[in-house]
Amino acid sequence: MRIGQTSFAVFASKLVGSALGFIATLYFARVLGAEILGQYALVLAVVAWLSLAGTLGVTSATTKRMSEGEEPSAYATAGAAVVATLALVLGGLVSLFGDAVNAYVGEPIAPLIVVLVFVGLFSSVTDAALRGERKVHLAGLLTPMGIAARSVVQIGLVVLGLELVGMLVGYAIGSLLVAVGGLVLLSVGLVRPNREHFEALFEYAKFSWLGGLQSRSFNDVDILLLGVFLQSSLVGVYSAAWSIAKFLTLFDSAVSSTLFPELSRADAEGRRGSVADLVEDSLTFGGLILIPGLFGGILLGERLLRIYGPEFVRGASVLWILIAATLVYGYQKQLLNALNAIDRPKATFRINAVFIAANVVLNVFLISTIGLVGAAVATLLSAGFGVTLALYTLRAEIEFAIPIGEIGRQFAAAAGMAAVVVAVEALLRTAIDLNHNFATVVLLVGVGAAAYFMTLFGISGTFRSTVRENSPM
């Protein structure tokens, strides 16, 4: 098995970028508080949904058609033209309904939302084209550069007193740098596409657009609805817990983005056996980080959120539920990634429709009855529905084995890690008395990670062989 250096490069890039973003978020949480952090989360959620409307599955269709190897320049140009047209339409609509947008967020920032949508769509187009050219590692390397620039500019503007506006301007600058960098790295050029290219993109996008909606539903529906039912400070608390859960998804995202063009190429060449092997690999390693993260969230949730500030500790009750939801959703994402890669967007469409409906209905009902915990539980339950449907559908298309043994070994290693963390934490409380929460968290996470990977290396032959095959030595 060789998920390979590409997956590791993408993962390392995402890890560096997320670490930089995590540091910036900590600064904003401690300096500006939960209310402004909540408004920031609401703005990004609105921008994400508008950006989704600005792609309508065209970017994923562009990646798919380019990865098939025929006329990539024409498909890239056609995709860019469609997205640019949609961006202009969205910009006009946001300007027209600017007062309503401002009232929802609580600040007059509609013009900034237009800018964020434009640069976000620009970045989406270049990212899709890079992935279509199978330059996933280069697309991944741009991420930490953009986040680093974004974080530096954001912190500087917040220091100058711009608060929410400074955070949004910094975000726009970071996205613009990523988009420009992606454009420079592309090999395709601008050519005049014909009607067949647009039709091929539409044929795929008319089903795949719901996949983007499903992803946005998982990431943002709860935050958007919390903004309706609860005050901004609670949204800020929830978004802080979400940021930790999403941090743990870096590796499974690297796996899915790396494998998509490989799955697509193998299917286009009729190598269904290779497709099945790649699906099994994706399930084997999709939970590699999230499984120990779930145990860590249960044990260290309060300590982790205390780093953001005392008011964020109340989010500990939802943190482990959100991590469990991301674990289940991670497996669903690997299965849907395979369905899209083998050109079954209609099947993915149906699964996504069920997932989105369940997510919205459950969030509305549970948030209105039990608040923050309800949002997390709704997300977990909807992910459970989605992964069940995705597994059933993909197994009807491809014969593959579920790597229950490897997943079980990961849980066993995580349980051993949890025992070590509990013992070390007890030692710190009694014998050493390390009375510093951040230092304690860093130490416990480091010890836990070492215990987990050493145990897994010892009990899993698959993990050992994967490490050895992909080692630079």
TrEMBL record:
InterPro entries: Poly_Biosynth_Transport. Keywords: Cell membrane, Membrane, Transmembrane, Transmembrane helix. It is a multi-pass membrane protein. It comes from the Archaea. The keyword Transmembrane helix applies. CDD domains: MATE_Wzx_like (cd13128). One of its GO terms (cellular component) is plasma membrane. Its main location: membrane. It is found in: Cell membrane. Coiled coil: none annotated. The chain crosses the membrane at residues 7-28, 40-62, 74-97, 109-130, 142-162, 168-191, 223-245, 282-300, 312-331, 364-391, 411-432, 438-463. PANTHER family: POLYSACCHARIDE BIOSYNTHESIS PROTEIN, PST FAMILY PREDICTED COLANIC ACID TRANSPORTER. This is Flippase. It comes from Halobellus litoreus. The lineage of its organism: Archaea, Methanobacteriati, Methanobacteriota, Stenosarchaea group, Halobacteria.
